[in-house]
Design brief:
Layout (H helix, E strand, L loop, with lengths): L6 H23 L26
């Protein structure tokens, strides 16, 4: 089974993961979020229970 031969694919996989983790990932993580989280408290909605006619 030729797909079990790790000779060409192992090098490609390791190279791509190193490229991603060393070059691309820090660039992506350096972006500033356009919508920073706010410190507002969540609103609590007052709900009334449903009154069933047969109870």
């Amino acid at each position: 089974m030729p797909q079990l031969n790790p000779n060409p694919w192992l090098f490609i996989m390791i190279t791509s993961w190193l490229t991603f983790s060393m070059i691309i990932q820090p660039k992506l993580l350096s972006f500033v979020s356009m919508n920073p989280p706010s410190s507002k408290k969540p609103t609590i909605h007052k709900t009334t229970p449903w009154t069933w006619p047969w109870t």
